[in-house]
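Need the bound structure for S-adenosylmethionine, inputs here:
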Amino acid sequence: MPQAPEQTLMEYPQTVLSGTPWIRRSTLAATALEAMPARPSDAQEALIADIHDSLRGGSQHSRYTQRHRLAALDRRLGETLAEHGARQRIRIHDMAASNAITSLELFEHLRDRETVLLKASDYYDRLHVVNVGDRWQVAFDVDLKPIQYIGRRMMVCARRPDPDAPTVDTIVKPALQAVLLPPALAALRSALDGTRAHPVQTDQYQQVSLFHPRCRSEAASDPRFELQHDDLFSPAPYRYDVVRVANALSTDFMSEARIITGVRAVAATIVEGGLLVLGRNAAGGDGPARGTIFVLKHDRLVPLADVSEGYQHKEAVRQLTLA
Ligand SMILES: C[S@@+](CC[C@H](N)C(=O)[O-])C[C@H]1O[C@@H](n2cnc3c(N)ncnc32)[C@H](O)[C@@H]1O
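Answer from helper R.:
Posting the output first, comments after.
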């Protein structure tokens, strides 16, 4: 088991190689997540946040999340559930949850007052990591796109280089790609061998969960809190009393038509009379949460309660006819 990179954390701000966005200290490698304890220190929390920030979730999304950023939405949902009267059991699905730290906060907010089952999911919920020789690892996302080249002392982001990046970036990355990618892909295909669900972990291949260690620990000890892979545009066909999508359906990342496709897809997983919570933090993600709680009535999503000025695309959702 690798050691949590606590001792290198103090030097971390100085050692991120300045001006070279693709080359970072190996402390930012996603594999560092595996070594994090269930109760990370503040410095380790900062590192976890930076790793998620550097990973991105597909080409359109950031993975950025932050503790407490959705607290106002949590409180409003708690009040709405209380106004609706207690139920036997409330099934909640928090989608596009990144490392699920805000899902855990919602669960903690509600679990003492309601009988709550909370599932947190994200499409980019894990990485596949393959060793190439004994010096390098290549991390791939769930779509088998290379994400990071991880050496002993450096990590190179495998995303497309910025044309304005320093020359060192544009030399090192293509060189690593040419040498590491073909053997890494061959090893990955052999490890997956037609089944992506439960590939065999070997000396050469491992999976790294992208869920926060606190969330993994909670899911291991409380069956009412679950972590899953799911795609908000094509969700698994279960039904929930409440679905929340925060900071994922916004014209900051995609067209309004794509947002509506996502809303239709997730609405199909809500029971009649159930709730859909849509929200976004202001100022590109760091500002106060704004959002709307909709109730599903027949084929319409009817706004029930707002947080701050409400969800950015509330009117488009209100006008939607599901069917
Ligand atoms: C900005 S984060 C939001 C995290 C959390 N909901 C919050 O508000 O703090 C957006 C997340 O959407 C995820 N994502 C992107 N496409 C997705 C899809 N098709 N289905 C589910 N999740 C997706 C990304 O992996 C990323 O973790």
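Comments: The CA atoms of residues 233 and 261 lie 7 Å apart. The two ends are 50 Å apart (CA to CA).
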